[in-house]
Specification:
The complex is a heterodimer of chains A (about 220) and B (about 280). Chain A is of the alpha+beta class and about 220 residues long. Chain A contains 7 helices and 10 strands. Chain A has one domain: Alpha-Beta Plaits, CATH 3.30.70. In chain A, about 50% of the residues are buried. Chain B is built from 10 helices and no strands. Chain B is about 70% helix and about 0% strand.
């Protein structure tokens, strides 16, 4: 079996937003849609204050609540753990947005391009932005790159061509990607050898996004 | 150590979505009140048809909200787990059963319409319950609140557009009291379970306090109606409906804060140590 997951080492993340730019560049998402985000969170009160950069987006849950509520079956889940959206089935009801505890989903009400004249040739070259119009979208873990890479015999997480753009772009090595079910993969090793948490664990969604916060196994 | 608040008001479901819960609640409440009215020997033609119209109007509001309205039939694709699909599936037979009672007058059709109405409003309550991003909706106490406000709106409106018979006035008063209890239990539960501060703030805002006062006036008028003042009961019915609409409009569009991002611990950097983080 394969279970693709992402690991964010919070000790390494410097909040540079390179991953958000890489995501935008790779996926050509419209204005107002940001699948990969890095939140700048403060905790504590002066003088005992911590600042944490939290990369976030779709957590590709084992039990995705978005899929459960979706009335059109547009949201699905593959055997490798990737949660998908079929833009041709989606009716844009936004119910999945109300069900996702991770604020990972976006609906484009009015398709706006960075330049007033509409989609530029560069936008069109990356993707067809019109596919997002009126439907809900979210991070796919760069599913196209993964599938194209697998077809070439590459290993997602190890071979950058088959790895999500945010991970490839990460300047500090904070973001890692791979198959959790492969004991030799980077993500399996990192999760085994470090302390980690997942967001909103109490919701029972079993996210595929792990946050490392200290060395040593849990 | 407390984390800064990251919960935000959802911006995707607006008054059109609230309109579905308003129309569905009042409509199904009216159909169920019509069932009671028929059992009491009252003429229920107008309330029943109005109830069906409200349900239809509510669904039309959703149609206006969705991004791809010409794919609306896709809503029927996922009855296995989606309460929105189940709501949609119940709508057509509900309309058919109501229309059949109006046309043929056989009480069995009305009984079926009442049952389907109960199912429809339960689906609406479960739609909110399944919205796990929004603590103000996903709380277990949301379900009785939605059911009770539908009953209060339906019986209240029946007094306005049907016959304000004493038994129906008593029912409207009982439902209004039940809604008030459900609403208070809901408020206390959200506070106890640490709903986002933005949500809790709405319970003390002036608009909500005015709505609360209107609900109390509504109950007083309904009680007065029981003592031979039918006009007071009609006024109480109007207020019961309006306050239900206000409650749902605020619940959907104003108090619907999401969970926000949450970190249970801070990372260890350099010689610093990790700290536990409490959510505000």
């Amino acid at each position: 079996m394969t279970r693709f997951v992402m690991v964010a080492d919070l000790r390494r993340c410097v909040g540079c937003q390179t991953c958000t730019a890489a995501c935008k560049e790779n996926n050509g998402t419209p204005v107002g849609v940001q699948w990969r985000r890095v939140l700048d969170i403060e905790a504590g009160e002066y003088p005992d204050v911590s600042r944490v950069f939290l990369p976030t987006g779709c957590q590709h849950c084992d039990k995705p609540p978005c899929m459960e509520v979706c009335p059109s079956t547009a949201t699905g889940k593959r055997a490798d753990g990737l949660v998908t959206i079929d833009y041709d089935l989606c009716i844009g009801c936004s119910y999945c947005i109300m069900a996702c505890p991770y604020e990972a989903r976006f609906k484009v009400e009015d398709l706006v391009y960075p330049y007033e004249e509409g989609a530029t040739a560069a936008d069109q070259a990356r993707t067809n932005p019109a596919k997002f119009d009126g439907v809900v979208s979210k991070c796919t873990f760069c599913i196209d790159r993964i599938d194209a890479g697998l077809a070439k015999g590459l290993v997602p997480g190890r071979d950058m061509e088959a790895t999500p753009a945010c991970v490839q772009g990460c300047i500090s090595g904070a973001l890692r990607f791979g198959d959790l079910d492969d004991p030799g993969s980077d993500v399996a090793t990192l999760i085994r050898d470090n302390k980690w948490f997942r967001q909103h664990e109490a919701e029972g969604t079993r996210p595929g996004f792990y946050y490392l916060w200290d060395k040593g196994a849990l | 150590m407390k984390q800064m608040i990251t919960a935000r008001l959802q911006k995707y479901w607006d008054l059109r979505a609230a309109g579905n819960f308003i129309g569905g609640g009042t409509g199904t409440g009216l159909v169920m009140a019509s069932g009671l009215g028929a059992a009491l020997g009252l003429d229920v033609t107008v309330p029943l048809l109005a109830g069906l119209a409200f349900v239809g109007l509510g669904l039309s509001m959703v149609w206006l909200e969705i991004g791809k309205p010409w794919r609306a039939l896709h809503v029927f694709f996922h009855p296995q787990t989606s309460w929105m699909t189940r709501e949609g599936i119940l709508a057509a037979p509900l309309m058919a059963a109501g229309a059949a009672y109006w046309w043929f007058g056989h009480p069995a059709f009305l009984a079926v319409a009442v049952l389907l109405s109960a199912g429809f409003i339960y689906c609406q309550a479960r739609i909110l319950r399944a919205a796990r991003a929004i603590p103000a909706w996903s709380h277990a106490r949301t379900v009785p609140l939605i059911l009770m406000t539908a009953a209060a709106e339906g019986t209240g409106l029946f007094l306005v557009i049907g016959e304000p018979a004493p038994a129906m006035i008593a029912a409207a008063l009982a439902m209004a009291v039940a809604r008030e209890v459900a609403r208070e239990v809901y408020r206390l539960a959200l506070s106890r379970d640490k709903a986002p501060q933005g949500t809790l703030n709405w319970f003390v805002r002036p608009e909500v306090r005015v709505l609360q006062a209107m609900r109390w006036v509504s109950m007083a008028l309904l009680a007065a109606g029981l003592f031979g003042l039918p006009l007071a009961a009609v006024g109480g019915g109007v207020l019961a409906v309006l306050t239900g609409w206000g409650l749902k409009a605020i619940m959907v569009t104003k108090a619907a804060f999401n969970r926000g991002a949450a970190i249970p611990r801070t990372p260890v950097r350099g010689r610093d140590s990790s700290r536990l983080v409490q959510q505000q």
